[in-house]
Amino acid sequence: MVTSRRASRTVVVLAAIASVGLASACGSDSQAAQGTGGVEKPDISVAVFPSFNALGAEAANADGMFKSAGLNVSLTKVATPAEGMPQLLGGKVQFALMDMTVPAVAKSKGVPLVLVAPGAKGTPPKDGFGVGNLWVRAGSPIKTMKDVQNATFGIPQINSQIWVDIRSAVDEAGGDSSKIKFVEVPNTLSALKAGNVDVTTTSEPAGTAALKDTSIQRLAGYTAAGGDLAYAYVTTQEFAKQNPNTVKAFEQAILKANSEVNADQAKRVQVASTYVKAPKELLEKAHFPEFGTEPISSTSVQTALDRLMKYGLLDQAKAPKAAELLPASQ
């Protein structure tokens, strides 16, 4: 159940963007491939948001992977994945980090986007504590994930990746997620403690910080995207077509950075400390996601599309095919 007047915000915004001509999105910013094997457009901007999900791009920029690939990268900070969309379509950035929901829904609305490199994957909880966690007030009658089906749930944005993840987790626990009363709240834990909602969610490192708060208790951790690809770097179909070497260089730099941060907790903490507003001591205790180290596959894309169709964010008749969300070379 949805009670917020902003519940369809993402779909409405994407539909509005889709109605704008896309010629300005790509034409002046892309150069035709020269056939030399070098990158066609070395100077690029990438929209990222201040969460652990941006760790690959942040590491690639800080540690020189982009530069080694022949790219001069500027990271443009946006508040949410959806906010990267107008900048991407307006040509202000050439790539944007998004959760899998945004480009899939946009594609179904006629916006020609493609996924070019993997971001964070759904990462299983460790000792029950996840990258994403559910919280209730101390003494709450909600004791299990299944119990959430009858609750008022505070969430940053309805019809989002997190919304799908929560519904999926409740259904997998034997509950009926269609019974949940979702309410959009700007500060999830504040809404919970004020009694405005019965249960809410946090991402890291907010969840680790919340462990000290005795007025609330963690209900459970959950795995985003069913354990598959949760976030990806996106560009326009036109940019990918006209700049295939640039896209490939970008992908290779991200894959290398993802592999390095997966393997090195100290590197994760060090890089995160440069853009996530949190004490280093908290980052050292936080649960980081794992990142994709292989090119995005059509199987992963199809898994995401199936989840979105299951929960009504995509009409099966209008849903894009997995191959349509990947560059032609893949």
From TrEMBL:
Entries under Pfam families matching the protein:
NMT1
What molecular functions are annotated in GO for this chain? Answer: transferase activity
A GO CC annotation given for this chain: periplasmic space
Q: Which Gene3D superfamilies match?
A: Periplasmic binding protein-like II
Domain SsuA/THI5-like: from-to ranges: 54-263
Q: Note the InterPro entries from the entry.
A: SsuA/THI5 (IPR015168)
Compartments, as annotated in UniProt: Periplasm
Chief localization class? Answer: periplasm
Q: Which residues form the signal peptide?
A: 1-25
**What keywords would UniProt list here?**
Signal, Transferase
**Family as reported in the entry's similarity comment:** Belongs to the bacterial solute-binding protein SsuA/TauA family.
Task: Kindly provide the name given to this protein in its UniProt entry.
Answer: Myristoyl transferase
Originating organism: Terrabacter aerolatus
